[in-house]
Amino acid sequence: MDGSNSGPKADATRRQDARALRLAEQLRANLKRRKAAARGRTSSAPPEDPASEAKDP
């Protein structure tokens, strides 16, 4: 065996890994945005529009 998993289960695992990475990145961006918005409420800066960053190019 060469250690490489090729087959439907390996493909599904890769898809799950990619999905988990995208979700983690989205959660990090959301947390960063929420922290910035919380800081904005205590200062004179207007809060950011969450819909503007929600769309990834």
Question: What can you see in these coordinates?
Answer:
It is a single chain. By secondary structure, the chain is mainly alpha-helical. It has a domain at 7-39. The protein has 2 helices and no strands. It has helices spanning 8-42, 50-54. The longest helix is centred in the middle third of the chain and has 35 residues, at 8-42. The model has no long low-confidence stretch (mean pLDDT 78).
Shape verdict: rod-shaped
What is the rounded distance between the termini?
A: 41 Å
Q: Can you give the mean pLDDT? A: 78
- What is the makeup of the main sheet? none
Order of helices and strands: HH
Q: State the share of residues found in helices, binned by percent.
A: over 70%
How many helix segments? 2
Strand content range: under 5%
Indicate the low-confidence ranges by residue numbers: none
Q: Structural class from helices and strands?
A: mainly alpha
> What gyration radius follows from the Cα positions, in whole Å?
19 Å
How many DSSP E strands?
0
